[in-house]
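agent> Task received from the user: take the single chain below, predict its 3D structure, and emit C-alpha cells. No templates, no multimer pairing.
agent> Plan: (1) validate residues, (2) run structure prediction, (3) serialize to C-alpha cells, (4) report one or two observations.
agent> Step 1 OK, no nonstandard residues flagged.
tool_call: predict_structure(input=
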Amino acid sequence: MKNLYFLILISVALSACDVIDLSNLPTSAPTTVTKPQLTNDEVIQGLKEALNVGIKNAIDSSSIVDGFLKNKDIRLPFPPDAIKVKDKAIALGMQNQVDKFETTLNKAAEEAVKEALPIFKEAILGMSIQDGFSILKGGDGAATKFLKDNTTANLKTAFLPKVKAATSKVQLTNYWNPIITKYNTVTALSGGEKINPDLDAYVTELAIQGLFKMVEKEENKIRKDPVARVTDLLSKVFGSL
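)
tool_result: status=success, residues=241
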C-alpha cells in the first residue's frame, strides 16, 4: 500500500513539471561593451604621441636617398619664381644642367630633414592645446593642421640653418650658378630683369611642407588603422573614435 502511495506522489510531481512555464524565468542582462572614458589630458597626450610617431616615420622615409626626389607628393620642382630661367636654359641646350640642379635641390631637402626631428619634437612638446577632443574628432589631418598652423613660422627660423648646411654639403649652387649666370647674361643683352631666387628659403619652405604632408598621412593612418596604433595610449585615444 505504501509503495502504491509513493508511486502516486511521483506521478503527480512529474505531471506538475510538464506544465512549468519557463518563459517568465529571469534571463541574464545583455552584455554591452563600453568604450573607455577619456580625459582631455589623455587625448592631448595621445595627439602629441600620434604626431611624434608621424614625424619620425615621415623623416625616416624622406631623409633616405631619393626620399624627396622620387616621391611625387613632396618632390621639389624647379623654383616657380624662376621657371623662365629653366625654359631659357633648356632652349640654350642646358637640359642636363637643369636635371642635375633639380636632383641636387631634392638632395638638399633630404639632407636637411635629417636634422629636423629634434626641432619638430620640441615644437610638439611646446604645443598648447586647450580642447583635445575637438582636434581628435576633427577628422583627417586635424592634428597635423593644428601643428602646422602653430609652429610653421618658428620651424622655418630653426630649420633654415640646417638647410644652408645641407645645400652647402651637396654643393647646390655649383649646379645653380651656371644656369642663372647664362640666363642673366642673355637677359642683360635684351634689357630684361636678372633673377637670383633665394634657394635656401625655397628648400626650407618646401621641405617643411613636404614633411607636414607625410605627417598627415601618418596621422590619418593611425586614425583609420588599428595596426598603426603602436602604443596603448594611441589605441585607447584613437580607438574611442
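agent> Step 4: summary for the user.
Residues 4-10 have pLDDT under 50 and may be disordered.
agent> Done.
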